[in-house]
Design brief:
This protein is α+β, with helices and mostly antiparallel strands and 83 residues long. It is built from three helices and three strands. The protein has one domain: YefM-like fold (3-Layer(aba) Sandwich). 45% of the residues lie in helices and 18% in strands. Strand 2 and strand 3 form a beta hairpin. It is elongated, with a radius of gyration of 21 Å.
Length: 83
């Protein structure tokens, strides 16, 4: 059995009727869209999606920083005026 990663669920038929109503009823939380009681998609509010993208961006940036620090490169000191 596949886990449902949301407190709220709806059928595809309910989604077709009114996606904005689903989000409103879920109180701004993610809604699992079920097809034959199996999650086929997640309806994510815009604010939640934007927050996820910020977190992902920060994670990828920190990964790049760690990789560069481990590459044994020597940083070059530069003043702001030189930029």
């Amino acid at each position: 059995m596949q886990p449902i990663l949301s407190n709220y669920t709806a059928s595809i038929t309910e989604l077709k009727k009114s996606p904005s109503e689903l989000l409103k009823n879920a109180g701004g939380e993610t809604v699992a869209i079920l097809n034959h009681n199996i999650p086929s998609a997640y309806l994510v509010p815009a604010k939640t999606y934007e927050k996820l993208m910020d977190i992902l961006d920060d994670y990828m940036l920190s990964k790049d920083v760690k990789d560069r620090l481990n590459d044994n490169f020597t940083p070059i000191e530069v003043s702001l005026n030189e930029l």
